[in-house]
């Protein structure tokens, strides 16, 4: 009887152990049992740039998107904790920043979403933007609200360094006009690109220039410091025409003779003192100009109503001391001498960017002046674009 009772007790114990072991065993094929863990959330939140990204271009928008769910909230903040502007799409599937970022800055984003299964998910992270080796400034001319002559080029200069990737820069430049105007950009050198029309601007044209340079790689580790823009107007059509042997200066408005003034131009016999051939533009106006030139033995020489049309040294100005030769003999050192009253009348009529066309001289204007765009034939000008 005692052995039988012990066998019954042991049998009961083995049965209990077998039942406990059956509750924690793994089903064939690796599947969980009836008491397995919860399913992971369905929603997946992704950000670009990715968490911990480095050297991120500051002009590329930050985006956050979700699949199998909708975004509840997205916030992007700068190092000071200030929010960066952005907008959540109407369908709540994506968010996109709407302002450019700074150079060499750290940004933090936080996003939350609700999945189609009702479960909440979050994404948190940081990234840093690129740190340029240098950020040279650029300038644009003409500036805002200027009214300029029909030969005025648009000039973008990079005074603090050379541009290596000229094509990239040129692609970032845009010229919009109130009426159709054919024109082209041309690189005059590594630090200047100009746009000019094939022919003179139509009078009254409204011009808008935009240069999306911020964040743009110039090459050599340099990136654009800031975007540029300008809005200006082309004034009336006024063209000065000087055929040096005629000893006069003619001014045309809209193709018709507007005024004609007796003149004494550069000395014909000496090409170094000629008023050189070429199309230049009015660059500067001074009521009194200083024409001192020790090389030729004269100092403290002041002349009235000085209109510069070249940095080679040519002006239109009064010279009453040369009155005997005005209208008769070319006797100047390259400038166009007028009687005082005529010089004043012309001075008052001229604006920056008016063309000055000179013909009849022995010498041609060298391309050393600041503005020599019109000395370059159109076909050659087009070939000076980095996008040709």
From TrEMBL:
<keyword id="KW-0449">Lipoprotein</keyword>
<keyword id="KW-0808">Transferase</keyword>
<dbReference type="InterPro" id="IPR041280">
    <property type="entry name" value="Big_10"/>
</dbReference>
<dbReference type="Pfam" id="PF17964">
    <property type="entry name" value="Big_10"/>
</dbReference>
<dbReference type="GO" id="GO:0005576">
    <property type="term" value="C:extracellular region"/>
</dbReference>
<dbReference type="GO" id="GO:0071972">
    <property type="term" value="F:peptidoglycan L,D-transpeptidase activity"/>
</dbReference>
<feature type="domain" description="L,D-TPase catalytic">
    <location>
        <begin position="238"/>
        <end position="359"/>
    </location>
</feature>
<dbReference type="InterPro" id="IPR050979">
    <property type="entry name" value="LD-transpeptidase"/>
</dbReference>
<dbReference type="GO" id="GO:0071555">
    <property type="term" value="P:cell wall organization"/>
</dbReference>
<dbReference type="InterPro" id="IPR005490">
    <property type="entry name" value="LD_TPept_cat_dom"/>
</dbReference>
<feature type="signal peptide">
    <location>
        <begin position="1"/>
        <end position="21"/>
    </location>
</feature>
<keyword id="KW-0961">Cell wall biogenesis/degradation</keyword>
<dbReference type="GO" id="GO:0018104">
    <property type="term" value="P:peptidoglycan-protein cross-linking"/>
</dbReference>
<keyword id="KW-0133">Cell shape</keyword>
<dbReference type="GO" id="GO:0016746">
    <property type="term" value="F:acyltransferase activity"/>
</dbReference>
<dbReference type="GO" id="GO:0008360">
    <property type="term" value="P:regulation of cell shape"/>
</dbReference>
<feature type="active site" description="Nucleophile">
    <location>
        <position position="335"/>
    </location>
</feature>
<protein>
    <submittedName>
        <fullName>Lipoprotein-anchoring transpeptidase ErfK/SrfK</fullName>
    </submittedName>
</protein>
<dbReference type="InterPro" id="IPR038063">
    <property type="entry name" value="Transpep_catalytic_dom"/>
</dbReference>
<keyword id="KW-0573">Peptidoglycan synthesis</keyword>
<comment type="pathway">
    <text>Cell wall biogenesis; peptidoglycan biosynthesis.</text>
</comment>
<feature type="active site" description="Proton donor/acceptor">
    <location>
        <position position="317"/>
    </location>
</feature>
<keyword id="KW-0012">Acyltransferase</keyword>
<dbReference type="Pfam" id="PF03734">
    <property type="entry name" value="YkuD"/>
</dbReference>
<keyword id="KW-0732">Signal</keyword>
């Amino acid at each position: 009887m005692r052995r039988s009772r012990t066998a019954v007790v042991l049998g009961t114990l083995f049965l209990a152990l077998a039942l406990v072991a059956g509750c924690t065993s793994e089903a064939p094929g690796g599947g969980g049992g009836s008491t397995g863990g919860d399913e992971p959330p369905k929603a997946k939140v992704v950000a670009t740039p990715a968490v911990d990204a480095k050297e991120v271009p500051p002009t590329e928008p930050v985006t956050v998107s979700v699949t199998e769910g909708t975004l509840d909230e997205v916030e992007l903040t700068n190092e000071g904790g200030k929010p960066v502007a952005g907008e959540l799409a109407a369908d709540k599937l994506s968010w996109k920043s709407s302002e450019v970022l700074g150079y060499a800055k750290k940004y933090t984003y936080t996003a939350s979403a609700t999945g189609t299964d009702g479960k909440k998910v979050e994404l948190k992270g940081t990234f840093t933007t690129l740190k340029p080796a240098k950020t040279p400034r650029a300038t644009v001319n003409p500036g805002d609200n200027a009214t300029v002559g029909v030969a005025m080029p648009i000039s973008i200069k990079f005074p603090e360094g050379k541009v290596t990737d000229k094509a990239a820069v040129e692609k970032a430049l845009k010229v919009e006009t109130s009426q159709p105007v054919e024109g082209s950009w041309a690189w005059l050198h590594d630090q200047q690109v100009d746009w000019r029309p094939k022919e003179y601007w139509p009078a009254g044209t409204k011009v808008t220039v935009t240069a999306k340079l911020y964040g743009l790689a110039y090459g050599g580790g340099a990136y654009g410091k800031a975007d540029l823009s300008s809005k200006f107007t082309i004034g009336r059509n006024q063209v000065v025409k000087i055929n040096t042997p005629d000893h006069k200066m003619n001014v045309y408005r809209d193709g018709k003779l507007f005024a004609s003034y007796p003149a004494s131009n550069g000395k014909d016999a000496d090409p170094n003192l000629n008023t050189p051939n070429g199309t230049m533009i009015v660059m500067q106006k001074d009521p009194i100009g200083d024409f001192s030139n020790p090389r030729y033995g004269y100092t403290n020489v002041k002349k009235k109503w000085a209109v510069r049309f070249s940095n080679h040294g040519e002006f239109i100005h009064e010279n009453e001391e040369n009155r005997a030769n005005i209208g008769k003999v070319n006797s100047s050192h390259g400038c166009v001498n007028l009687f005082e009253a005529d010089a004043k009348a012309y001075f008052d009529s001229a604006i920056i960017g008016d063309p000055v066309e000179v013909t009849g001289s022995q010498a041609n204007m060298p391309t050393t002046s600041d503005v020599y765009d019109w000395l370059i034939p159109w076909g050659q000008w087009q070939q000076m674009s980095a996008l040709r």
